[in-house]
């Protein structure tokens, strides 16, 4: 059984006790009993039972709020989503709606930029008295976020993941992966400047050091209790990941780490009846084992942005004796970050969604890998629609901005006739041509180098869209006081959004490609590059043929080794096969690929620099 936390069950006038909530390692709800367990797995006393013997949770309490609680959700979607979020933040700063935000729930790419924004808010609230903080401070804060994030993203995180030979060799250790390497890059390139000269733990920014201590406040600060008395509330940052062990969402906060209570309904007994997977319950950092007590900010962001297939799972070390916690991208569970705002009892919501939406396919493939990939996309798309539609019922207290806003919905009749349903808000209503909006919605969700044109176009699009939607949500807009419009660097492409030139559209359309972007911008170069790639592949194949064909035994042994490796990979969950699979795929293979991957990284970084030069705004 899981009890509803105090912040969901408080009465009028009661504090939420953010700093005083009990921390528990794990709770299991199986069969007729519900047991609370420690990290070592020792059961505690059974939970409370009602008169008729059933396990009960805290009694339902009608929730009444003296003040509204504003939450901001930043979706996943790599750098594309992050740049879109920056545009949303810029307009919210002008509307006076950044200052009252009390909860920030972030996923994947939204976590990368959300953590940077939070660090700048921390700097502001710890350096200025509450009475002195104005909306203009948040405008300047977003200016810093825009500049620092754009510069860091241009450094090409994806291409830098394998560029260091020593770190590649280190990946031969099962305890260190490419995800850990990228997590280090996040801290160094995105967060070190905002963190400043604050102390670190073992050279890393620890999550538990992210707690904001407002200027002039004496003693521990509980945002759930003290925020209603502040002009500039202290926001709670929720970095959302997904637990492979249980399928639940995993949450990193400045105070806690772990899975929140079972979600989806305030009737916890009903939820427990549906969901029998164990809750690895969130626990205060000070109560965690020493091995994971100083878990770094980069690791938390890396867990949230750990896209399956692109990065191996992030391991949380030493949390349980008989269970290894492995985390993947938060978008696997909730790519919009909506659940975090609901869990935290928000009454008003701003949802910035820069994620990719599933495209239509005229002739789906019947091959198994393609079918499985499509099924996963359908499942994720259905989850997204259900969550958002449920939240949008709240009406004027919700603002929802996404990259396909303004695009028509299509219907087809048998025979092929296509009809379009005009959107309630067309893209031209917020100053963006339909071709541009469609191209922006297809920009890749990646972590490679983003050029000025694509970064600023995403920001400007979100900025203009937010300015059209949010003021029309009366309950939401009333929480802030709109100031005058200010100038932003990304406005240099605003004219192109409405009246795009050929080169501007070409950059955006090429932006959907993960590879060979510079070559696609230059028609004469692309065929040459493709021929060179084919020649390299052909030379490698010929070299292997010459090496192996004179010796039939060698060729046979190589083929047999490949078949055995495939069989081991497919059976890697077997407890006898797993150690062998770890040795081959997590130790031997990374060691063998250490040098070739350096060469691959050099090529990616060179292509990224070329792309940055071709995509400068002044070249339009």
How would you briefly describe this protein structure?
It is built from 22 helices and 14 strands. With 620 residues, it is α/β, with parallel strands linked by helices. Strands 3, 4, 5, 6, 7, 8, 9, 10, 11 and 12 form a ten-stranded mixed beta sheet that branches.
What would you say this structure looks like, in words?
- The structure is a single chain.
- With 620 residues, the chain is of the alpha/beta class.
- Helix content is 44%, strand content 11%.
- It contains 22 helices and 14 strands.
- Strands 3, 4, 5, 6, 7, 8, 9, 10, 11 and 12 form a ten-stranded mixed sheet that branches. The chain has a two-stranded antiparallel sheet with strand order 1-2.
- The longest helix has 37 residues, at 578-614.
- The N and C termini lie far apart (60 Å).
Question: Which features characterize this protein?
Answer:
620 residues, alpha/beta, 10-stranded mixed beta sheet, two-stranded antiparallel sheet, 44% helix
Report the count of strand segments: 14
Shape: globular
Structural class: alpha/beta
Q: Which stretches are poorly predicted, pLDDT < 50 over at least 5 residues?
A: 1-17, 20-65
Rg (CA only): 26 Å
Spatial gap, N to C terminus: 60 Å
The number of helical runs is 22
State the share of residues found in helices, binned by percent: 40-55%
Topology:
Blueprint: E1 26-30, E2 33-37, E3 70-74, H1 78-94, E4 101-107, H2 109-127, H3 135-153, H4 157-160, H5 165-170, H6 178-195, H7 223-226, E5 236-243, E6 249-252, E7 256-258, H8 268-274, E8 283-284, H9 290-293, H10 297-304, E9 314-316, E10 325-329, H11 331-334, H12 338-343, E11 348-353, H13 368-392, E12 398-402, E13 409-412, E14 418-421, H14 434-441, H15 452-469, H16 474-477, H17 494-498, H18 502-510, H19 517-521, H20 525-548, H21 552-570, H22 578-614
Parallel strand pairs: 3-4, 3-11, 4-5, 11-12
Antiparallel strand pairs: 1-2, 5-6, 5-10, 6-7, 7-8, 9-10, 13-14
Helix pairs in contact: 1-2, 1-3, 1-15, 2-3, 2-6, 2-10, 6-10
